[in-house]
Amino acid sequence: MLDESEEEHWVFRRDRTIQRPLSLSVRRDPSRIPFLAPEIQVLYKARSVRAKHQADFDLVAPRMNRAARAWLRTAVTQLDARHPWLISSLHLARDKDCVRGEDAEVASPLGDGAP
């Protein structure tokens, strides 16, 4: 998954219009080992919500920061505006300050700064 990129953006292989700057897509653990940002990992699990995927979402979503949740919400909406996580999860409820302001640059799955 770390090699799915174009220039300075990670690109979602299932919908290439969903992107995220590499600087926000790749994180490092304390040993400096790179890993894909949790919001991107969860996005891959949004395709078919099985029990394990739901459990992973339930574990990760409350721990994501506001910008990551906003980005995930926008990306999932682009894939399926009626996705169960959008309907039933308080973690993906729209935060009024995620639409504009400090988080707007990462709220777009297009990676272009658009909200």
Q: TL;DR?
A:
By secondary structure, this protein is an alpha+beta fold.
The proportion of residues forming helix, as a percent range, comes to 40-55%
Q: How many strands?
A: 5
What percentage of amino acids are in beta strands?
5-15%
**Form type:** globular
- Indicate the multimeric state: single chain
Rg estimate, integer Å: 13 Å
Number of helices: 7
Write the layout of secondary structure elements.
Elements lengths: L4 E2 L2 E3 L7 E3 H4 E3 L5 E3 L1 H8 L5 H10 L5 H14 L4 H5 L7 H4 L4 H4 L8
Helix pairs in contact: 2-3, 2-4
What are its keywords?
3-stranded antiparallel β-sheet; 115 residues; two-stranded antiparallel sheet; 12% strand; alpha+beta; single chain
How would you describe this structure to a colleague?
This protein is globular. By secondary structure, the protein is of the alpha+beta class. Strand 1 and strand 2 (9-11) form a beta hairpin. Strands 1-2-3 form a three-stranded antiparallel β-sheet. It is 43% helix and 12% strand. The protein has seven helices and five strands, in the order βββαββαααααα. Mean pLDDT is 82; it is low at 96-108. It has one domain (5-107). It has helices at 22-25, 38-45, 51-60, 66-79, 84-88, 96-99, 104-107, and strands spanning 5-6, 9-11, 19-21, 26-28, 34-36. The longest helix is centred in the middle third of the chain and has 14 residues, at 66-79. Helix 2 (38-45) packs antiparallel against helix 3 (51-60).
